[in-house]
Amino acid sequence: MTPNMKQIHVPQGNSATDGHRARTFIKNLRVLTPEGTAGRPKFIHADLLIAGNRIEAVYVDGSQSQKEFASNMDADLIIDGAGYLAIPGLINVHTHAAMGFFRGLGHGHTNMIENFLFPAEKALTPELLEPLSWSYLITSLRAGVTCIGDHYYMIDGVGRALERLGMRGFIGETIADLGGAFPGWESWTKARDAIQSWNFSNRIRPVVAPHAADTVSSKMLRDAAQFARKNDLTLHMHLSQTTGELKRVREQDGMTPVQKAFACDALWERTLAVHMVSAREADFAELRTSGATAVICPASQIIYEHLAPLENIAATGVYWATATDCAASNDGSDLLNDCKWMGLLARDRKISHETFEPSALLASVTSTPARALGMTGQLGVLQAKSLADIVFLRDDISMRPAFDDVRNLIYSAGSSGVEHVMIDGHWRLWRRELCSVDEQQLTLAFEQAVQEIMRRTGLKH
Ligand SMILES: [Zn+2]
Question: What angle do CA 296, 126, 113 make, to 5 degrees?
Fold first, then answer.
């Protein structure tokens, strides 16, 4: 009898290592596919065949290909997935994972970034970065996040933490020459050198990460954008993230942050423009024309200033992604929960519900960020040839009645249904437990690193 996902221990035999493309066949699932009506994804009864680190086939129930495969069952491991949903691994495209140490400290500060974050960040060391990332990454994985877009300092530490957990990341060393924790032209020289001598696995890839429009000069921004375009990399930056940034850029450059980014040739389909809190409708329209993606982090924006004008997203049709930002200004890393809030806040503002309907919310953490990362068809979708980043959720009573599965997923089940997670063909979470690392040991290392950073900064809790 085929073992069911509920019964077995961590499945063996799915390793993509040693050049052996082991094949895992998971049958009787309900799989989220992109082929619903009106371009909306929908859950269908299907089987998944995973070979090495990719999905080889999605066999829809009753199809000829399913029958053909069933006649010889050419797989190393066969699992019965009845009672489970399969969705693409979620992409949290704006994080600062190592800022897990600020959790709970960000509330009630005015000018938090300048008065609180920058001084504390000066106390960071390269050794502290890896353990400081554990809390955010582990809770992300448990929330169904398989890939992050991280933007921080001494990014090697986050890269090492991602490698150890087997997660995927597009990570960028923050650069700035006019402000921030470590301003100077050398921040860009160092970041560029690090990209050119990149030494991580294929799961961890570099991005170019200017800090923001007020902390980066036009010269640096133009140079960084040119480099990113030439090397086919994503440009990930905060843009119009506060009213203070808008004011400073107006004073320094006589234009809005978005206009500055546009003038520096820094907006195209590989640009992640994070926050847009102080952006006007004309700025969103400019972003729409460029093909760049606005990244909205609802909890974070509300805690540190206010929510970005969602009505401008609806009015301009700009590409948009949902993200969590960091623990300093969100506390949590539950991406589906932030999607739910996006939907509710849009409703509260009486914004066209089509822009923020459930399948759009889901796209904002799957296919849309994948596009901005240059990974369309590879990530954020379950189809033949895509990378095997798959989240398996319990298809239980929280998903019933099944009139609108995607709505149920966002508004009812949420990440509490996440049970197993596969990344790049490897099981990384099984029954909500980490597969290849000792969580207790990592929690201890995280707590020790937090104590050290608190000692160094003099912050009290
Ligand atoms: Zn941020």
Answer: 35
